[in-house]
Amino acid sequence: MGYVGVTTGLVFAELGWKVTGLDTDALKIQSLSEGKLSFYEPGLDILLSQHLQSDNIRFTSDPIQAIREHSVIFLCVGTPSDINGSADLQYVRNVAEHIGTNMNDYKLVAVKSTVPIDTNRKVRQWIREAQTSPHPFDVVSNPEFLREGSALYDSLHPDRIIIGSNSKQAVDTLKTLYRSINAPVLVTKPKTAEMIKYASNAFLATKISYVNELSRLCDKIGVNISDVTKGMGMDHRIGPHFLRAGIGYGGSCFPKDSKALLYTAKENDIQLSILEKVTEVNNSQASYFLNVWEEKLGGFDHRTIAILGISFKPNTDDLREAPSLAIMQHLLEKQAILRVHDPIAKLPSYLQGEFVQQFDSLEDTLDGADAIILCSEWTDYIGANWSQLRSVMGDYFIFDGRNKLDGKSLTDLGFYYYGIGNR
Ligand code: UDX
After folding, report:
1. pLDDT score at 85
2. Distance CA 356, CA 82 (A)
3. Do 290 and 345 lie in a common domain?
4. Least C-beta-crowded within 10 Å: which of 10, 28, 191, 299?
């Protein structure tokens, strides 16, 4: 019952199926049963209370009950990065063994977690080895493509449904489960489905790093990267999405999945040199622009900097791999004083201290600040009353790390506006 599990469960409940959410964390199960989510995601809280009431969903920490009462099991556990960059499969294995031990008749096990290529085969093996009697089962790869912040919309309106399986019975069952969703279904071999997930995430990361690296050149030669990507995106072969330059991608997927794919390639003696560069550009993008901005401001030391939006993207409280964290760390090393704001996310305890403070209102955050660094583009900032906010600031620098503010209007109001590859 992490991010993907809760969303998947609620979406199937919404589609009219009877769902049980299973997790070993009894406290989490209790909160979910009381209608409380452990993370922020627009729209999910309403769906949770509706489907608790309609009895389409319930939650348990009892694996025996959950496994025996259901013919289809979605495996949605995390696959965090191991120290060497590979995906840690201990949770996947644990669940597979539980299923093997407790199954009482045919089960369809659908793997939603992002797992390395060939995990489907391993899951089959782990289930088989744990079985006490030889009940039949299928393991299907059914990767998830939802984005945090728009998880519900993405799950109900996916661009495609990928089903990786060699079993017609399993494919037909999954097609039935998804029948009210209007999306093309692509049936592939399990390994191919696993690869599609990694290849898609790595490609999106590549698009971002490509424009991020170009933004450095644009910044130098006085060309606006946002105008360039607008023109590029009008070409259907390129498309307008994931071409927004910024301080780099974060989140639970792109950094981790790129690492895992690189690890798989290395294991197979293949060098994915483009993806290596993608990661490298992402790791240096925020510091590249911090250096540019430091020069504009005339140094960060003892300057008061307002950090707006610390989550890795808007509409989530998720701080995993958020570029804001590295930015704040860097600024503290430069002896800046930080005033932080985020509509939902809370400053992690390791960053709290004498020189960093989080405020509830934008006005309090900007009080006396010399400069603003926008790290994630919540609508609160885009729609803010900037002329009023300017009056509480000490100096008037805006560094827009997401190229989302209206630089022209801000300049007219008397701000010094600098974006990413966009002066
Ligand atoms: C991603 C994939 O989009 C999704 O399909 C997959 O299932 C999980 O990983 P997510 O990480 O939730 O989803 O968010 P996404 O909207 O993809 O953004 C990831 C990061 O890229 C964010 O930090 C975002 O700010 C950044 N980004 C995105 C850019 O810097 N530029 C863009 O043009 C788009």
Report:
1. 86
2. 31
3. yes
4. 299
Ranges of residues in the chain whose predicted pLDDT is under 70: none
Q: Whose CA is nearest to atom 16 of ligand 1?
A: 147
Local structure of residue 351 (DSSP, 8 states): G
Tell me which of 188, 205, 237 is where a domain ends. Answer: 188
The Cα–Cα gap between 352 and 204 comes to 33
H-state helical runs in 3-118: 3-14, 26-33, 44-53, 63-69, 90-102
Residues making up the binding site for substrate: 145-148, 197, 242-246, 250, 313
pLDDT for 422 equals 83
Among left, alpha and beta (phi > 0; psi -120 to 50; other), residue 128 is alpha
Residue 151 CA: which ligand 1 atom is closest?
Answer: 12
pLDDT value, residue 370: 98
Decide whether any atom of ligand 1 lies within 6 Å of the 219 Cβ.
no
Residue 348: CB partners within 8 Å, gap ≥ 6? 319, 325
CB atoms within 10 A of CB 124: 17
Q: How far is the CA of 124 from the centre of ligand 1 (A)?
A: 31
* Rounded alpha-carbon distances, angstroms, from residue 31 to 19, 73, 223, 307: 17, 22, 51, 32
Per DSSP, 81 falls in state: B
pLDDT of residue 81: 87
Are 42 and 149 contacting, i.e. CB atoms less than 8 angstroms apart?
A: yes
The count of domains in the chain is: 2
- 100 and 37 within one domain: yes
- CA of 313, closest atom in ligand 1: 25
Check residue 82 and report its DSSP letter: P
Looking at the structure, tell me whether residues 64 and 200 fall in a common domain: no
Residue 362 beta carbon below 6 angstroms from any ligand 1 atom: no
The pair phi, psi for residue 342, each rounded to 5°, is -155, 135
**What is the CA(209)–ligand 1 centre distance, in A?**
12
Rounded (10°) angle between helices 119-130 and 90-102: 40
Residues annotated as part of the active site:
253
99 CA from centroid of ligand 1 (Å): 32
Instruction: Report phi then psi at 291, rounded to 5.
Output: -65, -45
Contact call for residues 230 and 302 (beta carbons, < 8 A)? no
| Ligand 1 pocket residue status of 378, Cβ below 6 Å | no
